[in-house]
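Aim 2 progress update. The chain analyzed this quarter is reproduced below.
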Amino acid sequence: LVQQLTSVTWDRSNYTSDYMFYNCRNLKSLKFAPSHSFVGRHTFENCTALKSVDIPKETYGLNTAMFKGCS
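Predicted C-alpha cells:
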C-alpha cells in the first residue's frame, strides 16, 4: 500500500522512522508539518519519482543516505 503513495502531508507525528518511505517509487512530493523534528535514516531511499520534499529548518537527523537511490 505504501508503495502506491504519490503525495504525502505528514502531520501525524513529529518524526519519521528509518526506512519509512523506502522503495515508494511513485512518491512525488512530501510536506512535513512545521513541528516535524526528526527524519530517520534511509527515509526516502529509492523513491525515484521524488521531486519535492518540504522539510522544516529545525529538523535534525538529516543524513546523506536519506535520499540514496533518488534521481
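The radius of gyration is 11 Å. The chain has no helices and five strands. These observations will guide the mutagenesis experiments scheduled for the next reporting period.
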